[in-house]
């Protein structure tokens, strides 16, 4: 197993077979920070460089004889029944337990191993976020949040994704003439997708947070530009990458998301609060700074240009669908040459795949999220099939790999 330290970026190689028990703690070879590895699912872990197939990219394939085992956690008996009825309407899924609060859910997990958990947030005794932290530290299980609070753009949604949930949905409801059948199909679809994500076995004891100092230096220098492309499932992936990137390294980052612009506005504020980097909305004419991440929507065309000694963003609206990541990667490769890097995270479609090739042609480096850790695997799998990759890692390992790369190539 390869582990990139969050604190210093050192690459640690662990002999997994020599470890015993489910949890192992050890010191990083570089900074001696205490790291923690969960081996609960170690038989499912394979090398990130193994041959990828559609089946290998997922962690669970269900059928009638081998149904997905689901634990429902919600304080409402009515909602639990509604979710049970929806889930068991699909013969490939089986509810193996219900819990009315987080503590009962954790007690259930002592003796049972569901394939997936649906989890509410507001509950008595132990709330959903606290429960989620316990699950992800001690016994990682793919979890989808189903709560009245988990709406796109809400802080509660981002919190749940930051603490390890794979995806989110609102509770089923008939309010305002809502279509229950479409809600049912979406719940079943999300459960299938979440069950196909291989949970990262590595958990850290300390996560990055905003420093409460007198602020960050202005106009930090940079000599590397990373273009990050992400589509469906992008909130969770970026929450596992951006907050772990180091602000004192000479790099700047531009992420393009396939999300509505008004949702990105709220996400920028949340990311900025929990990241070492400064996180800003991509704005036309702004001069790039090191230690900063700029977020743009896929409905915007973003390119780079020189303005004197500075590099600035050029941002315009575009009616061309599905090529924003490719365009930004091509522009960055042309301007930065070997000082450009491309990153592809979870997503469907092919936006960004050709852009990675352009960066490689100009001498830059590319990073791709291991499809087995993706909610949507199509784009990373296309990139992995097309290129020889030095960096094919999970979203939780991506920042460590990037930090390590920058340190090695920043001179």
Question: What is the secondary structure topology, with strand pairs?
Answer:
Blueprint: E1 2-4, E2 11-13, E3 23-27, E4 34-38, E5 68-73, H1 77-88, E6 93-99, H2 102-111, E7 116-119, H3 128-138, E8 143-146, H4 155-162, E9 167-169, H5 180-195, E10 202-204, E11 224-230, H6 234-241, E12 251-257, H7 261-273, E13 278-281, E14 292-297, E15 300-307, E16 310-317, H8 324-336, E17 340-344, H9 353-361, E18 365-369, H10 378-386, E19 391-393, H11 395-408
Parallel strand pairs: 5-6, 5-7, 7-8, 8-9, 11-12, 11-17, 12-14, 13-14, 17-18, 18-19
Antiparallel strand pairs: 1-2, 3-4, 4-10, 15-16
Helix pairs in contact: 2-3, 6-11, 8-9
Distance between the termini: 29 Å
Number of strands: 19
Report the principal-axis shape.
Answer: globular
* Radius of gyration of CA atoms, rounded to a whole number: 21 Å
Q: What's the CATH H-level homologous superfamily of the largest domain?
A: Methylesterase CheB, C-terminal domain
Strand order of the largest sheet: 13-14-12-11-17-18-19
Structural class of the secondary structure composition? alpha/beta
Q: What is the number of independent domains?
A: 3
Mean pLDDT: 83
Total number of helices: 11
Specify the helix fraction band: 25-40%
Largest sheet: 7 strands, parallel
Quick one: CATH class of the largest domain? Alpha Beta
């Amino acid at each position: 197993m390869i582990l990139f330290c969050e604190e210093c970026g050192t690459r640690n190689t662990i002999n997994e077979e020599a470890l015993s028990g489910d949890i192992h703690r050890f010191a990083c070879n570089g900074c001696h920070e205490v790291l923690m590895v969960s081996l609960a699912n170690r038989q499912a872990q394979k090398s990130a460089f193994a041959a990828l197939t559609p089946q290998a990219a997922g962690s669970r394939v269900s059928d009638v004889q081998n149904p997905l085992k689901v634990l429902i956690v919600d304080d409402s008996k009515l909602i639990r029944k509604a979710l049970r009825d929806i889930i068991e309407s699909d013969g490939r899924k089986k509810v193996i337990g219900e819990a009315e609060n987080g503590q009962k859910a954790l007690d259930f997990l002592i003796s049972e191993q569901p394939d997936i958990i649906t989890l509410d947030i507001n509950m008595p005794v132990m709330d959903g976020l606290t429960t989620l932290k316990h699950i992800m530290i001690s016994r990682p299980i793919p979890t989808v949040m189903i709560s009245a609070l988990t709406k796109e753009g809400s802080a509660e949604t981002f919190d749940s994704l930051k603490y390890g949930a794979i995806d989110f949905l609102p509770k089923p409801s008939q309010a305002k003439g809502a279509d229950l059948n479409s809600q049912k199909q979406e719940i079943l679809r999300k459960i299938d997708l979440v069950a196909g994500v291989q949970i990262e076995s590595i958990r850290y004891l300390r996560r990055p947070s905003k420093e409460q100092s007198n602020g960050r230096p202005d106009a930090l220098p940079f000599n590397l530009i990373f273009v990050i492309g992400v589509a469906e499932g992008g909130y969770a992936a970026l929450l596992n990458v951006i907050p772990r990137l180091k602000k004192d390294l000479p790099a700047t980052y531009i992420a393009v998301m396939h999300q509505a612009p008004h949702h990105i506005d709220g996400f920028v504020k949340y990311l900025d609060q929990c990241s070492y980097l400064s996180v800003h909305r991509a704005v036309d004419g702004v001069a790039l700074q090191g230690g900063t991440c700029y977020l743009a929507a896929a409905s915007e065309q973003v390119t780079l240009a020189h303005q004197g000694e500075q590099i600035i963003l050029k941002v315009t609206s575009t009616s061309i669908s599905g090529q924003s990541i490719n365009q930004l990667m091509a522009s960055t490769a042309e301007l930065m040459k070997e000082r450009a890097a491309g990153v592809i995270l979870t997503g469907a479609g092919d936006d960004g795949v050709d852009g990675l090739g352009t960066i490689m042609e100009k001498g830059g480096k590319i990073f791709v999220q291991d499809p087995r850790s993706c909610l949507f695997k199509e784009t990373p799998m296309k990139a992995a099939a097309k290129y020889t990759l030095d960096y094919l890692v999970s979203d939780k390992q991506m920042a460590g790999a990037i930090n390590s790369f920058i340190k090695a190539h920043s001179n």
